[in-house]
Fold:
Amino acid sequence: MSKKSADRRQPQTLPRHVAVVMDGNGRWAQRRFLPRTSGHKFGVDALKRLVRHCAEIGVPYLTVFAFSSENWSRPAEEVQTLMDLFVKALEREAPELARQGVQLHVVGDLTAFSAEMRGLIAQAQALTRDNTRLVLNVALNYGGRWDVVQAAQAVAGSGQEITTETLAQHLALAHCPDPDLLIRTGGEHRISNFLLWQLAYTELYFTDLLWPDFNAEAFDAALADFAQRQRRFGGVPDGKTRAAA
Ligand code: FPP
Structure:
């Protein structure tokens, strides 16, 4: 993204938190007569570009759906390729993320992963813990229903009353504001069990672009669309109250 287009954007219309469903890797590869798995490799490059771009333009929170709790049902070879990509990315990219000022969180049910992978996740998170430029949440073995259930269990286990506030404090993204904008690539118009609780008032943006083709320009188009939206959070325009209306 050019510095010029960043300068044109009003800071107050920049979302604080953007969530992304990175869909379309398989189709991108198939259209090129490549194995589906190579689409995921190019997908990692698209994610690296987006992280850099968000850090540059000052989006403070970015959450990406990298592996859903339902993705285990894919062919074993594809699941293995994705796991290998995650391990490689954690090993190779953690120092680069640290250099860029990114604080990494891997969110989801991590009990399903190998001890090696959990160790790498812990190391990468520790390495980037003190960074403040961009919080990057990578959702791995994540499902929105799982998130609500695990939070409810944690609150119940702590003996607290289950309220909106106590539950939110135990969700996987308790360290972030709710997303302002959700982008889904790949042409499908659904949430697919992503951040079910956190998306309550999020603006939704869908694009037909396949994830490996998603770039800074496409992200800026989503931001420009977001800047036109009128957010009411269940209220009325211009923040009028019933008494004042
Ligand atoms: C959906 O495309 C994409 C995924 C299930 C995987 C997304 C993962 C990445 C982009 C890699 C992220 C890497 C790291 C290191 C976090 P699809 O396969 O469902 O595409 P299709 O709809 O065309 O079949």
